[in-house]
Amino acid sequence: MNQPHRNRRLRTCPALRTLARETRLTTDCLIAPLFVVEGTNVRREISSLPGVFNLSVDKATEEARLLFDLGIPAVLLFGVPEHRDATGTSSASPQAPVQRAIAAIRAAAPDMAVITDVCLCEYTDHGHCGILRGDATIDNDATIEVLARAAVSHADAGAHMVAPSDMMDLRVAAIRRALDAAGHTELPIMSYAAKYASCFYGPFRDAAQSAPAFGDRLSHQMDPANAREALREILTDIDEGADAIIIKPALPALDIIRTVRDQTLLPIAGYNVSGEYAMVKAAAARGWIDGERAMIETLTAIRRAGADLIITYFAREYASLRQR
Ligand code: PBG
Fold it and tell me: Domain 25-322 classified CATH 3.40.50.12280?
């Protein structure tokens, strides 16, 4: 008769543990976010994101090349423009930091994928993700037109993929239509399909200077209490033409990543957001946790939950560790 099984047998030595490992983490599933600012020769560390910098186009290009040489296949660009207005006009300017960085990175690292974040919060003077009506509510349908123009300008500049993060309704469809009309029928959209209204974006808003001047993002980002709604958001975006989807923030939503993995055949990215990174860095700096092991455990857990890709500020550190 069967003996109760001895589960420890496959854990007795490093080689057996390696063979028994179910989730493999590699640099080629990582996407590195970069924050592109105006100017030249700017490399300014973000105080709440140690090891992450505001970079001018020249420095962002150097960083991208270095990341590519370390085995990271893609960057996700965020713009931090100086010119901001009520309707986020500069988001579609060919002279804005992101548009210029796309071309420079493509020239310096031709085989690297350049993905761009599409949202208005970094481009509006009020820091909201859309165009506001007189009563300060967001005008969804006016906003998606501006987002579509921004996406087309990224595509015109040479982006490989656009990633709308605004959470307006129907924006994937609007962006798809605009890209197709501009001749970018083969350019994929990776939508932030399920994006929660999370406190873990705090350090990002320092990096992008994109905190709302008043109010919050609760009218478009999702309530962290909701799981069925996340699935509805994702299925809607897929219906509208998304080619890949992002779930964000990753760690508080591992259950969503798993559920979605079982519901779609599309690639899924988990966004290991700024606050998740900052917590590890802060605790490691105090000697409260082992930062390197926390990084590996974090990234592995996101993959184990079912994400194919991970957008993470750890990209460079993880890739450097793998090269040692
Ligand atoms: C919006 C955007 C945000 C993040 C990615 N895209 C900020 C927000 O929604 O307030 C957050 C990413 C992070 O925290 O690392 N453009």
Answer: no
